[in-house]
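A favour, since you know our C-alpha cells better than I do. Go ahead and set the record down below.
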Amino acid sequence: MKLDEKQIKENWKDLMGRIDHQFEGERKEKLLEMYSYFEERMMFAPASSREHFHNCFVGGYVDHVLRVMDCAFEVYNSWVSTGGYTDNYTIEELLFSALNHDLGKVGDMNTDAYIPNPSEWHRKNQGQLYKANSETPFALVPDRSLFLLNQFGIKYSWNEFLGIKLHDGMYDDSNKPYLMGYNPDTRIQVNLPYVLHQADMMASRIEYERWKFGENGLQNVRTLKDAPMDKIKEHIPTQSDIYNPPVPKKVKAVKQVTPNSRQSALNSGSDASKLFDELFG
C-alpha cells in the first residue's frame, strides 16, 4: 500500500479541516498550533513499523487517524441505536480522543518515533520496514500522546484521558486495572474508551486487510468465497468508499446509520507545497 503525493496532501488537509470544524476556541487554536508544529514529520509518518501490522508506509499515520475518527462515529451510532449508554460523554470528547489516540507515534518534540530500517534482511524477511528510533526516549504510545498534549497546553477532560490512555484495550497490560474492575463502584463508568478501542481495532483490521488483499482484493475474495455475496455485492464499499468525508461540526447521533450520516466539511489545511517539491521533485 502506498500513497502518492496528492493523497498525502489531501489527507493532511482533511485532518486540519476536521480540527478547524470540530473544535472551538482556545483548544482549537492550540490543536492547530501543535499539528502545524509536527506537520513535516507527521504528514509522512507511518502508523506502525511492520508491513503486516497496519499502515506501515509513508503517510500511514494520518490515514489511520482519519479512519479511526470515521470508525469512532460509526461505532458510536451503533451503540446509540442498540441501546448503549452515551449520555455521560460528548461527541467532541470521542473525536478528540480519536484524533490524538496515537499522537505518541510521531515521537517527541524533536525526534521521530520510527525511522526507516537500514537492514535489508529485516525488511525482506520480517517486513520490518521501520524501527524504533534510539534517539527518542522510550514511552508507551498513550503516555507520550498525553505528554505531547501537555507540552502545548492542550487541556483534556477525564473522559478524554481515559479514551487515549485505554484505547489499546486489554492488549496493553497497564490497562488491566482500569478494565478488569470487579467492583461496580470501581469499574469504568463511561463507555468512551470501549467505543474508541472498537473503532481503533476496526480501522486497524481494515488497514491490515487492504495490505493483505490489495486495494480491491478483499471484495474479490468475498465474492469468490461466498456465492450469495453476488446478490448484494453492490452494497460492499469499494476502495474509494472506505473513508471519505470528515466528521462535521456539532455532530449528533442518528438512530440508524445511513450513507448520509456523515457530511463533507473540510476546506482548510496547511500548504506543504515547498516540502513536496523537495521530496517529490
